[in-house]
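#lab-general

N.A. 3:47 PM
ok so I finally got the sequence cleaned up, no stray characters, all 471 residues accounted for. can someone with queue access submit it? mine expired

B.Y. 3:52 PM
send it over

N.A. 3:53 PM
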Amino acid sequence: MASTTISGLNSGLNIPSIVESLVAAEKGPKEAQLNRLEKATTAKITGVGQLKSAIADLQTILKDMNKAELFQKRTATSSDTKLVTASATKDALAGTYKVDVERLATSSKVATATISGGSSATFASGGTLTVKLGDTELAPVNIAANASLKDIRDAINTQLKDQGVSANIVTDSSTVPATSRLLLSSTKTGSDANLGMTGTGDLAALNIAQYDPDSGTPPVANVHLSVAANAKFSIDGLAMENATNSVADYIEGVTINLVGPTEAGKPITLTVDQDKSSITSNIKKFVDAYNKLITTTSSLTAVSAVGEDKAPVTGALVGDASVRTLLSAARNELANASGDGEIRILADLGITTQKDGTLKIDDTKLGKALNENFESVASFFTGETGLMNRVNAKLDPYARTGGILEQRLSGLNGTINSVDDQREALSRRVEQLQSRLLAQFNAMDSLVGQLNQTSSRLEQAFKSLPGLVKS
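B.Y. 4:20 PM
back already:
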């Protein structure tokens, strides 16, 4: 702010202090008014933001619970997950089954004859190795001349990894020279997945005879280390086999995972049912989100006394009509009955309204409603006329893009911008006032100086008059 410093030497006045006081008297009330307006508006912006966030959280769970697939989920529960686990799709029908596991499905592991020289032994001619997995002959593995056993292992691992076949070397260092064997393993299970291998040239030393489970002859010791076999199990006493330990569609919509064999006469109980725990969890999320909206609005519209001699503390949105309208609309929908089933209002689910407006769940009554009237619960919450869609329709005008709250925020931000503009205008007006006052006081002080000079000259003139007698 520009200023002109004058001392008030002629008038004897402290002109800078006087001007400063006059400027402050002019600026103070308006500046205080703008500060109050900015503080109140900022608080309202924060309050509207909190309200919008609480509505958005509630809308998220409302939309999630309005999905029919939520009520179509099924659970498959095992009495012993260390031996059997399971999962179910929406196509699964409720039921209880007894599962016995006699044997898990296994994969094949085989070994070559011993190779003198250990893992460094070389095969001069090179050539190809052909691995057979059941009835499938895998792509030939090309082996370079003079390749070592290690090189062959690496070639198999590189070229057959996508077929689930891997190789390793076991070395017996107690012999002189050391001897090694090449091991092949497969990830594929089932009786038609036994491994075998043939080689050309001097790679024939790595031949492995494929085990035939239908031959009636036992596997060869130290060659067929693990025989591929089907899983053997029974469901409600019906004996079955499967090539893998993941058993799908034996019960429609249910996948059973065999983990370990069961004890004789002690089958695992598998229970397929509606996913009631997921429904219960989502209902609790809905209640929590609704209660958050209620507590948020209560805080924003509260008036709290802080003492006899102090003004009460008021919430940022005290007296806001839009908050009252929003809550009224939401509460009316929660109280309205809908549908023609056993579940028509929230109280039928054990969900009641408390004195402070929040909801409370009676877990026992909710569990009973889900057990006895599951389909009615689903129709109560979902669909065009379901509770979730109706409540969301009441909230949407407030929270959507361009909605009531966004317009409100736009207006409040406009007020903040107006406060900034008024502050700039006040600053210019005060600067002009200061300049004008300094100019006026400067002129006054100059005039006083001139009058003092005139007074001094007159006094000297009077003293010079003849016959003037000094007293």
